[in-house]
Amino acid sequence: MRALLVVNPKATSTSARTRDVLTHALASDLKLDVVSTTHRGHARDLARQAAEDGQVELVIALGGDGTVNEVANGLLHHGPDPEGLPSLAVVPGGSTNVFARALGLPNDAVEATGALLNALESGNSRTVGLGFAGGTPDTEDAEVPGRWFTFCAGFGFDAGVVGRVEQQRERGKRSTHALYMRQVLRQLLGDPHRRRGTIVLEQPGGEPVEELVASIVCNTSPWTFLGNKPVYAAPAASFDTALDVLGLARLSPGAVTRYGTQLLTSSPERGPRGKHVVSLHDVVAFTLHSQVPLPFQMDGDHLGLRNSVSFTGVRRALRVIV
């Protein structure tokens, strides 16, 4: 099998020596081409070229969730075709690795490589649904160029936290759970809309949901991890369904404490709840609007401010080796 290994050399949880060992192990079983990324968007371009080349059967992403997102977007540049596109495989190398862990892969890169080689030997794979934001998969929205996401997107409060974390990382800070918690507090203190939100959720045939402060869109569950602890914002979300939404209509200090506690104690059966919580399951298409520009993120990548984003849940979008 001919495969392309896309390596993010800045991946936070793998060393150069570890990446060399993993590359050697994969090359022993595959006709392997290896390319290290040099800039943002490079992994997307490499995956797109592999899909268009027609000779590559498998693209392996060695990196964090951002690298996986870029590879998925490259593979899906011309749209979903699970039988015609190269398959995707993931070797986790980031700080959280939500997509890989949601697939049931080990969080250790060496163990995940062993699991990948076993899956290739036994022919194990599955198709997964993905989310698409910015118009529809075949019609892009003028404000937000279309982009796929593998596990989550956010509009409002949580995207603001992601943006603050990115700013700190650009200043040389390490991505740690403590860093995230500090930015949650700063976002809370600095958000002028936390008591009365500006987000309206609209979906075909449904009543609009108004005055949301935060809107978290999940393509799978868990939503994220705190170390080894999974956190469930939308427990019913799945790679086999469309999209789930968790909306919060109030974020006072008391509400943040309550929702934070609920998230920390969440489980596959129970997530955040209360009179200011909106939960939607298996939604195929909807749009989030805001009267004022709000932060927007996908798969942990802050994409700036937006007034409106349209979402589509696409079942069976991509084949993954697991």
- How many runs of DSSP E, i.e. beta strands? 18
- The separation of the N and C termini measures 16 Å
Report helical residue fraction.
Answer: 25-40%
Return the CATH class of the largest domain: Mainly Beta
User: What proportion strand?
Assistant: 25-35%
The value of Rg in angstroms is 19 Å
- SS-based structural class? alpha+beta
Number of helical segments with 4 or more residues: 8
Poorly predicted parts: 139-143
The CATH level-2 architecture of the largest domain is identified as Sandwich
How many structurally independent domains?
2
User: What is the overall silhouette?
Assistant: globular
Strand count, sense and closure of the main sheet?
A: 10 strands, antiparallel
Order of helices and strands: EHEHEHEHHEEEEEHHEEEEEEHEEE
Give a written overview of the molecule:
By secondary structure, the protein is an alpha+beta fold. The protein folds into 2 domains: 2-123, Rossmann fold; 133-316, Tumour Suppressor Smad4, CATH 2.60.200.40. The protein is built from 8 helices and 18 strands. The protein has helices at 16-27, 42-53, 65-75, 98-102, 109-122, 157-170, 177-190, 253-264, and strands spanning 2-7, 31-36, 58-63, 87-92, 125-133, 135-136, 139-140, 147-149, 152-156, 199-202, 209-212, 214-218, 224-226, 229-231, 243-248, 277-283, 285-298, 301-321. The strands form 4 sheets. Strands 5, 8, 9, 10, 11, 12, 15, 16, 17 and 18 form a 10-stranded antiparallel β-sheet that branches. Helix 2 (42-53) runs parallel beside helix 3 and helix 6 (157-170) crosses helix 7 (177-190). The two termini are 16 Å apart.
